[in-house]
């Protein structure tokens, strides 16, 4: 009885619940419109609240630009850490921030001014996280302002989503070559002057546990449904098999191959759905660490029709590199020529909202693992081949204050003549095979500097370069500044200027002139205080005495009676001449000649006299160095921005002594400019061909690169074999080179140059260059660019319209007139008779003496 009562009570309770539910349903049907209104209001209100909160949180964002170094090569572990840092940054906002606004944006931007700008945009609270990266010192994280773009006439848009099974992965893209290289190539042809722009925004959002659980459930459901469909297909196949004709069925039953493995007594079995393995089905969704939602927005723009659409097509094609079981597919579809997608209403306002605010729409995004998109989580690496844009390195135009460097073919196929700014180009080193374009490239640069109003000195031991460039320099503005010193002449009627090393008519300081001459001769001969102390002392005293004589001659108004270096021989060997010179000295200087010189052994003078005798044996050199008043004055040339062409007679031992004197004088003249205010030190370039013959084991070339920058000195050196230069010179040139280049050559000869480029160009790469081609690196606005493969410029293709072959002789006449050149025969005669001119001047200063006093000086 009690059980019956209990059962009746239970049924009564159930009936009451059912009646209540029925009443509620009838009430709901009767008030459906009101319920719909309330629910709709709540949904709309919630959505409005979410949008308001999202807009508020996204209004304050941290913007950081990552600038990689030239050697940046991240490891997979560093990229993983960066990905986890970005996930942490995306969720670093206040607790009330909606999930759609918990995003971090990677903005890859190209506008024709830089190859690819890499930015990170995250909630303002993540600023401290973003200023340091796992990439270390090789990536600089710089806080920047939000991008403010100008309006462009044509804009196209695209949304890329992950397409494939929920757990399927993108292709595993290796880090070498750089995964960003296809994108870099796609945007390489952008032109800033046409308003071109391409941007790819990769938005990342942390994985929500609820969304991840739903995605996992969906993946398992789809897998089980697929398993059931396979089982049903197999069951249909078995049913089809059972309806086959009897002979076929019997034959299959009698064939052991058809039923091998089936249980005894059971040849036909109803199929069951295969077991679904969770790890296999879920794939990347099985583990939550490193899992993010991804949406990729692309926008291209231009002021020219069709350029934006063409660029968008290239950017979309770039994403095919990630195509695997899953891929990045562009949303939308095409109806004939019409594309339906983010560019059309009603999708365009949604795209613009997400673009401006970095909102994430879960329904339009997919799941990705940090490892899948590793190539997008870093800026371009050292493995990326970045194009050179015109905004980074200008194009040469005749007359602009630029130094032409070489022809460069851009990604769009256009070839332009690269140039560096005159003030940025301090020192340059060219290396490589003979006849492969080093000298031609230097000639083009020299002609450009001459037309820019700049001063220069071109030292060419071969003597051919002047003939090559003369037609391009034959202009009025250059004729009044040009000076030629050609020591390769042989004809007595050929014009030649002179250079008195001891000339004091230029208001030089006597001790500076003496030191420059002594240092030049000693460096060329390898003298120092340890190896040749006596020779150095004799040379120093002799040069000092003759400089003192010349100072008196200039003060007396007779500079044509100055002594030259060839008067050192009679000073040391002729007692009468020495008596005259010593008599003109002050008491302190005279004391050495009267006290110490007579005690020196006569054979000790040979070390000083022999090199001077070798110089005097060459009539051209004797004429150049043996005349009293100099037409050659490199200090005046520097101050007046002259264009000086110097052709030494050769590269033998005697010639190297003369060249050493010239190069040492470059250094002396440059250092002497310390008496000028910095603003008046006009830059002056020295072009030195065949540097091996100019180096001579001395340190003067190294000193020029180390000391003359602040005094306006610039050096361009060319050599076939860099390793044949002295270690000091080679180290100084490589250390201070603004431009470094090489043509083809042997691997051993090229290695010292390619070593400076951190393996971006191997010696084998450079060794295989064709003629006229170079690998070169440059410094522009303090930034090092390259190495780039360039084609060396030629005079005719750059300055063809400036050529004036009919004015060449006028140019040479002006060059000789500016230096006071005279026929070679006259100069030789003047040099031979100069000793008598000095005697005549000194005789008027020193009273006559008897033979006993003359013997005192012997």
How many individual helices?
Answer: 33
Task: Summarize the amount of helix as a percent range.
Answer: 40-55%
Structural class: alpha+beta
Number of strands: 24
Q: Using the alpha-carbon principal axes, give the shape.
A: elongated
- Mean pLDDT value: 83
Low-pLDDT residue spans: none
Task: Please state roughly what percent of the residues sit in beta strands, choosing from under 5%, 5-15%, 15-25%, 25-35%, 35-45% or over 45%.
Answer: 15-25%
Give the biggest sheet.
Answer: 9 strands, antiparallel
* Radius of gyration computed on alpha carbons: 43 Å
Cα-to-Cα separation, first versus last residue: 159 Å
Task: Write the topology of this structure.
Blueprint lengths: L1 H29 L1 H27 L2 E8 L7 H15 L13 E7 L6 E7 L3 H4 L8 E5 L10 E10 L17 H6 L10 E10 L2 H34 L3 H9 L1 H4 L18 H5 L8 E12 L4 H12 L8 E4 L2 E3 L2 E3 L6 H11 L8 E4 L32 E8 L5 E7 L5 E5 L6 H14 L3 E5 L5 H9 L2 H4 L2 E5 L8 E2 L13 H16 L7 H23 L12 H6 L1 H9 L3 H9 L10 H12 L1 H7 L8 H6 L3 E5 L5 H19 L12 E5 L2 H5 L4 H8 L5 E7 L7 H10 L2 E4 L4 H8 L8 H5 L5 E8 L2 E9 L3 H5 L8 H12 L2 E2 H9 L1 H10 L7 H6 L2
Parallel strand pairs: 14-20, 14-21, 15-18, 15-19, 16-18, 19-20
Antiparallel strand pairs: 1-3, 1-4, 2-3, 2-6, 5-7, 5-8, 6-7, 7-11, 9-10, 12-13, 17-24, 21-22, 22-23
Helix pairs in contact: 12-13, 15-16, 15-23, 21-31, 23-25, 25-26
């Amino acid at each position: 009885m009690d059980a019956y009562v209990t059962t009746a009570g239970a049924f009564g309770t159930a009936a009451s619940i059912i009646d209540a539910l029925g009443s509620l349903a009838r009430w709901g049907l009767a008030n459906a419109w009101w319920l719909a209104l309330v629910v709709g209001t709540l949904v709309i209100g919630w959505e409005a609240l979410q949008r308001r909160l999202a807009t508020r949180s996204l209004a304050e964002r941290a913007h950081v630009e990552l600038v990689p170094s030239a050697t940046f090569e991240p490891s997979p572990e560093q990229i993983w850490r960066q990905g986890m840092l970005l996930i942490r940054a995306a969720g670093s906002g206040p607790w009330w921030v909606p999930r759609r606004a918990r995003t971090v944006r990677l903005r890859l931007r190209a506008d024709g001014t830089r190859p690819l700008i890499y930015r990170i945009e995250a909630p303002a609270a993540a600023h401290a996280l973003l200023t340091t990266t796992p990439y270390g010192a090789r990536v600089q994280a710089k806080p920047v302002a939000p991008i403010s773009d100008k309006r462009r006439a044509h804009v196209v848009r695209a949304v890329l989503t992950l397409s494939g099974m929920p757990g399927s992965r993108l292709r595993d893209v290796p880090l070498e070559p750089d995964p960003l290289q296809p994108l870099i190539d796609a945007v390489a042809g952008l032109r800033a002057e046409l308003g071109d722009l391409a941007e790819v925004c990769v938005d990342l959002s942390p994985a929500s546990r609820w969304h991840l659980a739903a995605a996992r459930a969906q993946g398992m459901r789809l897998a089980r449904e697929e398993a059931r469909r396979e089982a049903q297909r197999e069951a249909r196949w078995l049913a089809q098999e059972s309806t086959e004709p009897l002979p076929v069925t019997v034959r299959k039953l009698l064939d052991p191959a058809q039923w091998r493995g089936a249980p005894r007594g059971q040849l036909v079995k109803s199929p069951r759905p295969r077991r679904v393995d969770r790890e296999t089905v879920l794939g990347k969704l099985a583990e939550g660490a490193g899992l993010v939602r991804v949406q990729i927005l692309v926008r291209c723009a231009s002021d020219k029709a069709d350029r934006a659409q063409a660029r968008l097509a290239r950017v979309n094609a770039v994403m095919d590199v990630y195509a695997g079981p899953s891929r990045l597919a562009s949303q939308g579809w095409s109806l004939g020529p019409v594309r339906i997608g983010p560019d059309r209403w009603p999708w365009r306002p949604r795209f613009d909202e997400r673009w401006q605010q970095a909102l994430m729409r879960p329904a339009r995004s997919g799941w990705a693992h940090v490892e899948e998109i590793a190539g997008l989580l870093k800026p371009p690496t050292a493995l990326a081949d970045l194009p050179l844009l015109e905004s980074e390195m200008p194009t040469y135009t005749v007359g602009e204050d630029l130094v032409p460097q070489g022809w460069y073919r851009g990604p769009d196929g256009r070839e332009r003549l690269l140039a560096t700014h005159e003030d940025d180009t301090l020192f340059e080193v060219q290396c490589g095979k003979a006849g492969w374009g080093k000298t031609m490239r230097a000639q083009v640069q020299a002609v450009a500097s001459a037309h820019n109003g700049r001063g220069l000195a071109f030292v060419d031991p071969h003597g051919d370069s002047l003939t090559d460039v003369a037609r391009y320099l034959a202009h009025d503005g250059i004729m009044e500044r040009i000076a030629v010193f050609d020591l390769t002449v042989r004809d007595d009627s050929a014009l030649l200027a002179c250079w008195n090393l001891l000339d004091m008519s230029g208001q030089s300081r006597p001790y500076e002139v003496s030191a420059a001459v002594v240092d030049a001769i000693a460096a060329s001969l390898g003298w120092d205080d340890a190896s040749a102390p006596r020779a150095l002392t004799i040379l120093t005293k002799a040069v000092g005495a003759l400089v003192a004589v010349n100072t008196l001659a200039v003060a007396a108004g007779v500079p044509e009676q100055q002594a030259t270096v060839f008067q050192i021989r009679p000073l040391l060997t002729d007692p009468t001449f020495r008596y005259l010179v010593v008599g003109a000295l002050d008491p302190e200087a005279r004391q050495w000649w009267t006290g110490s010189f007579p005690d020196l052994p006569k054979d000790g003078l040979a070390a000083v006299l022999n090199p001077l005798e070798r110089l005097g044996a060459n009539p051209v050199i004797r004429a150049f160095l043996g005349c009293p008043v100099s037409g050659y004055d490199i200090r005046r040339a520097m101050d007046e921005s002259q264009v000086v062409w110097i052709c030494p007679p050769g590269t033998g031992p005697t010639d190297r002594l003369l060249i050493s004197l010239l190069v040492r004088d470059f250094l002396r003249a440059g250092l002497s400019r310390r008496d000028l205010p910095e603003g008046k030190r006009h830059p002056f370039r020295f072009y030195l061909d065949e540097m091996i013959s100019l180096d001579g084991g001395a340190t003067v070339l190294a000193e020029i690169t180390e000391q003359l920058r602040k005094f306006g000195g610039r050096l361009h050196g060319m050599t076939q074999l860099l390793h044949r230069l002295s270690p000091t010179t080679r180290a100084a040139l490589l250390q201070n080179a603004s431009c470094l280049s090489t043509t083809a050559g042997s691997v051993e000869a090229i290695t010292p140059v390619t070593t400076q480029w951190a393996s971006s160009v191997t010696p084998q790469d450079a060794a295989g260059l064709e003629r006229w081609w170079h690998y070169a690196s440059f410094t522009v606005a303090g930034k090092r660019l390259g190495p780039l493969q360039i084609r060396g410029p030629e005079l005719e293709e750059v300055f063809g319209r400036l050529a004036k072959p009919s004015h060449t002789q006028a140019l040479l006449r002006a060059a000789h007139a500016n230096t006071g050149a005279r026929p070679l025969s006259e100069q030789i005669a003047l040099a031979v008779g100069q000793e008598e001119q000095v005697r005549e001047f000194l005789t008027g200063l020193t009273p006559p003496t008897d033979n006993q006093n003359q013997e005192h000086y012997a």
